[in-house]
Design brief:
The chain has one domain: Orthogonal Bundle (Helix Hairpins). The protein is 77% helix and 0% strand. The protein has six helices and no strands. Helix 1 packs across helix 4. The chain starts with a helix and ends in a 6-residue tail after the last helix. This is Phosphoribosyl-ATP pyrophosphatase.
Length: 114
């Protein structure tokens, strides 16, 4: 199995684990605790982890970047579960974008007015 497929399956297994803990006791499951605190708290934790990831990238600390990246992915998966997004939804969107330049893809998005 390719490393890309292994990574995809690891994320899907993590997703399945978080789903299985959604209704668990918050005293027994960190995932359940996060979801019990609500979407705003989940988003806040994801943002905190993303900032920590960026800091480690800027600092050039490879090992810390790897660790923080894992935290970012975990909190992203918790956010997906809470919002009803499945990994296959994200994979389909990535496949839709495949072969399209980032500039073209961004230009094709609907314009949002404040």
């Amino acid at each position: 199995m390719s490393k890309d497929l292994q990574a995809r399956y690891v994320l899907e297994r993590l997703f399945d684990t978080v789903v299985s803990r959604k209704d668990a006791s918050p005293s027994l499951s960190h995932s359940a605790r996060l979801m019990a605190r609500g979407r705003n708290k989940i988003a806040q934790k994801f943002g905190e982890e993303a900032v920590e990831c960026v800091i480690e990238a800027v600092n050039g600390d490879r090992d810390a970047l790897i660790s923080e990246s894992a935290d970012v992915l975990y909190h992203l998966v918790v956010m997906w579960v809470d919002a009803g997004v499945k990994p296959s939804d994200v994979w389909a969107e990535l496949e839709r974008r495949e072969g399209t330049s980032g500039i073209e893809e961004k230009a094709s998005r609907p314009k949002h007015t404040p």
